[in-house]
Specification:
Length: about 350
């Protein structure tokens, strides 16, 4: 029996596959076969349900002490408004929240640049403001990179920082800042910012203090398949220990307006291959998310056939990270649109809260 047939057999028997086997699936797996396996796994976990939520983003600043090469969003710490930089606080947050009547929103996702002067106090201020104004809203805020910076600036441990944020009302961490864990690739594209071990430490600590989280992977730039598998393997290992990850979110590198714009974006088939292998390999992370804002709406619906069970949310034109990198301008989907398109694709739309309880 050929190597690939042996791996197919393992997947069919629902056995965990190794890193070497996952690389082999990426390289030699037949896309239709990967699709079939990924679909079987998602059907077993979630039947025909496809999850979404009603969420907005709040991006408090795009000033950043780092200069990741793939980033189209960040401005230098001393950049001015004329140069496209912004600093928002509770006033702007209030303006944003006031647009939404009580009950029309279940989550605010806060992330942005790593601001040179904003430590844990600023994080606490934003989170507690939302909890005071709108206690029913789930606050998913601050990537592991932002948390690491807050801890450093406020001279606290990661655990102390997370505990303070949790006590202020933080509910979970988003999955950003993971990029690709391999140190040689990470150094080239995201030099200087929290290394892989720190990212994983922050999420492990978050899980231990009672905050769940998500995990992303930025792919389709200078990494190869072994780097993607290494990335997912480290997540799988941490998940075995803590069980705190809700969803895995592969993010295809978008190439406009950044320092790696010379790279071509990968094809749609490559996106689908990536979703399918992720669904097969990450047997212990319950949800696989297609973030339509980044991937494109049609592409995200297509991904439902490749193991994806979550479409993220309505977003309502509240994020700039992706449009600045060449993705959808003014991203917003109504609940009706999401539900009818999910149904058109043969799935049942299910509104969820941020920890995937059905609403
Ligand atoms: O870490 C930045 C990525 C991430 C580009 O947890 C880019 O539910 C592609 O993590 N091309 C931040 N990707 C966004 C994020 C996220 C999004 C949606 C939901 C959740 C969640 C988390 O955006 C960064 C980085 O990997 N990113 N620039 C780019 N040019
Ligand atoms: Fe800063 Fe995040 Fe952009 Fe990197 S990806 S430059 S950390 S905003």
């Amino acid at each position: 029996m050929s190597k690939i047939q042996e791996i197919y057999g393992k997947v069919e028997r629902q056995e965990r596959i190794s890193e070497v086997e996952a690389v082999c699936l990426y390289e030699d797996g037949d896309l239709a076969t990967l699709q079939k396996f990924a679909h079987q796994i998602r059907s077993e976990k979630h039947q025909d349900k496809t999850f979404y939520n009603r969420n907005i983003h709040f991006e408090p600043t795009n000033k950043c002490v780092y200069a990741c090469k793939f980033c189209s969003f960040a401005r230098k710490p001393k950049a001015t408004e004329e140069e496209g930089a912004w600093d928002y606080g509770t006033e702007e947050l209030k303006e944003q929240l006031d647009k939404y009547p009580v009950g029309s929103l279940t989550e605010v996702h806060i992330t942005g640049g790593v601001h040179p002067d904003r430590g844990v106090d600023f994080g606490e201020e934003l989170v507690s403001f939302i909890k005071r104004e709108r206690p029913e809203i789930h606050v998913k805020a601050f990537t592991a990179v932002e948390v690491t910076w807050m801890a450093k600036l406020s001279k606290l441990s990661v655990k102390e920082t997370l505990t303070r944020l949790r006590n202020a009302g933080l509910d979970s961490l988003p999955g950003g800042g993971a990029e690709i864990f391999d140190s040689s690739i990470r150094r080239k594209i995201a030099g200087g910012k929290a290394p892989a071990d720190r990212w994983l430490e922050v999420h492990g600590e978050a899980h231990r203090v009672g905050l769940s989280s998500n995990a992303t992977m930025l792919y389709g730039h200078i990494e190869d398949y072994s780097h993607r598998v290494d990335h997912m393997s480290r997540l799988r290992q941490l998940q075995d220990e803590t069980g705190g990850f809700n969803s895995f979110i592969p993010l295809r590198y978008r190439n406009e307006n950044n320092s790696m714009s010379n790279l071509k974006e990968v094809s749609l088939d490559e996106d689908m291959r990536n979703f399918a292998v992720a669904r097969i390999f990450l047997d212990n992370i319950p949800h696989l998310k297609a973030y339509w804002v980044m991937l494109g709406v049609e592409e995200a619906f297509k991904a439902l056939d490749y193991g994806v069970d979550d479409m993220d949310g309505t977003v309502d034109d509240s994020t700039k990270i992706y449009s600045m990198a060449g993705s959808i301008e003014n991203p917003a989907l109504s609940r009706d649109y999401l539900c009818s398109r999910i149904a058109e694709h043969g799935f049942k739309a299910v509104e969820r809260n941020s920890v995937y309880e059905e609403i």
